[in-house]
């Protein structure tokens, strides 16, 4: 595709930065519009309230980020991020059993979201044709009715009057609360969607733990065993020799007041986990931050790929298209895969920019679909979670549970599961004959 003049990106979070990196190769000028102030360091920002909670960059996300920003992984480690063996240094209680621990030869990077986002931002500042405009709120799209085309935005900066900016491409990465959905509705454009009400709450705090020579993990995850248990938690080492503790609860299992006052109240939540491992670790821990909370009432996948007469010149990605259940840690990695998909789509097509946009929306639907299905299969283990259920749900849940239980003792099955969870192998790899036979054998002879 021939180089275009200008692209505007709404939202300067991770998805926005990734989009800017890709578009900088195809456009003379890339302008990122961000509501927040410019970051002064790797600290949580107001517009990303989830930034104070545990985040994970899966293998697909890690490899893709390195492709987009060569050398960034080393910079993570040089500034304190923790490099771990993905299967040796992880202690994981899942569906009532502890996962097998073995050396699979994979590495994972443990760090906070602000630390990761800050390093991406440093790379972005080195790209000469990318500009970030901070404290800029997008008020409306500029729209050509007869051509059904978005050709710009109307923005307002703090203390200034509104102004209009035109561009060849508008990219919305502003997140689940994006104005695009409302704007489309006002124009009578229906967006098919799938929605699941999960009533999820996150409560997090960062600690300093006393040295312990017997501590044989870098990250410990205590997942609930649904439908009987609704609360789970994770303790993970992060940069600065600190540990972040995140407790999550489905279906409003964590009330508005719980975990929001002090480390003591967080301890009470940790005591409710299916195992007391994290509770014991925190007995002599020193709190380094206040307790923070974050709530995700629902997850939603907007089927932009199915919209008829979707406006030309407008591209959506990241949480603007699909907000996934954050418990599974796949959101950032999906954004990376989407960015790589955009890069490939723009590089392959010789047609119009609009053809590339349409192709991109279709392609990311194929990226999202298996992950969405995997996530809601787990979420629907809670009968009170509302949403459209597949007629094959019970069978899918039964099979997945067998895989989880076998992951506590069968290295091949767990190894395959790790690759699927990290988005580097398709989900149907868990149906290969060797695994299928192990599942059936367990069902018949357990």
Automatic annotation (TrEMBL):
Matches recorded under SUPFAM superfamilies: FAD/NAD(P)-binding domain (SSF51905)
Gene3D superfamilies per record: FAD/NAD(P)-binding domain
Name of this chain's protein: FAD-binding domain-containing protein
InterPro entries xrefs: FAD-bd (IPR002938), FAD/NAD-bd_sf (IPR036188)
Highest taxon above the source species: Bacteria
FAD-binding domain ranges (all copies): 6-348
GO molecular-function terms, A-Z: FAD binding
Lineage, top ranks: Bacteria, Bacillati, Bacillota, Bacilli, Bacillales
């Amino acid at each position: 595709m021939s180089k275009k003049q200008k692209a505007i990106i709404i939202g300067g979070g991770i998805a926005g930065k990734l989009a800017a990196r890709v578009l900088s190769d195809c456009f003379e000028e890339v302008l990122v519009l961000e509501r927040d102030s410019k970051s002064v360091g790797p600290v949580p920002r107001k517009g990303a309230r989830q930034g104070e909670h545990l985040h994970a960059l899966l293998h697909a996300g890690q490899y893709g980020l390195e492709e987009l920003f060569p050398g960034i992984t080393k910079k993570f480690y040089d500034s304190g991020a923790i490099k771990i063996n993905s299967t040796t240094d992880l202690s994981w209680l899942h569906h009532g059993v502890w996962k097998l621990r073995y050396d699979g030869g994979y590495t994972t990077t443990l760090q906070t979201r602000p630390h990761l986002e800050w390093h991406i931002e440093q790379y972005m500042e080195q790209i000469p044709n990318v500009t970030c405009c901070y404290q800029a709120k997008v008020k409306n799209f500029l729209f050509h009715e007869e051509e059904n085309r978005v050709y710009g935005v109307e923005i307002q900066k703090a203390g200034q009057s509104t102004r209009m900016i035109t561009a060849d491409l508008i990219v919305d990465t502003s997140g689940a609360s994006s104005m695009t959905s409302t704007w489309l509705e006002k124009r009578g454009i229906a967006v098919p969607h799938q929605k699941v009400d999960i009533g999820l709450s996150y409560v997090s705090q960062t600690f300093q733990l006393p040295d312990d020579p017997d501590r044989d993990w870098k990250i410990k995850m205590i997942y609930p065993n649904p439908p009987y248990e609704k609360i789970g938690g994770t303790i993970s080492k992060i940069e600065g020799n600190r540990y972040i503790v995140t407790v999550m609860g489905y279906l409003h299992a964590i009330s508005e007041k719980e975990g929001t006052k002090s480390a003591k109240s967080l301890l009470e939540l940790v005591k409710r986990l299916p195992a007391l491992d994290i509770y014991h670790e925190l007995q002599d821990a020193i709190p380094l931050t206040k307790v923070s909370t974050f709530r995700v009432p629902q997850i939603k996948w907007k089927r932009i790929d199915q919209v008829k007469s979707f406006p030309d010149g407008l591209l959506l990605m990241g949480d603007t298209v699909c907000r996934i259940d954050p418990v599974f840690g796949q959101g950032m990695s999906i954004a990376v895969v989407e960015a790589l998909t955009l890069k490939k789509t723009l590089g392959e097509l010789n047609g119009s920019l609009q053809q590339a946009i349409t192709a991109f929306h279709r392609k990311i639907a194929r990226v999202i679909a298996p992950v969405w299905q995997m996530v809601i299969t787990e979420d629907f283990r809670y009968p009170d979670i509302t949403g459209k259920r597949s007629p094959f749900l019970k069978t899918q849940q039964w099979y997945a549970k067998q895989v989880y239980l076998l992951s506590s003792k069968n290295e091949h099955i767990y190894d395959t599961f790790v690759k699927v969870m990290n988005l580097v192998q398709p989900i149907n790899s868990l149906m290969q004959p060797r695994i299928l036979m192990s599942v059936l054998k367990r069902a018949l002879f357990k």
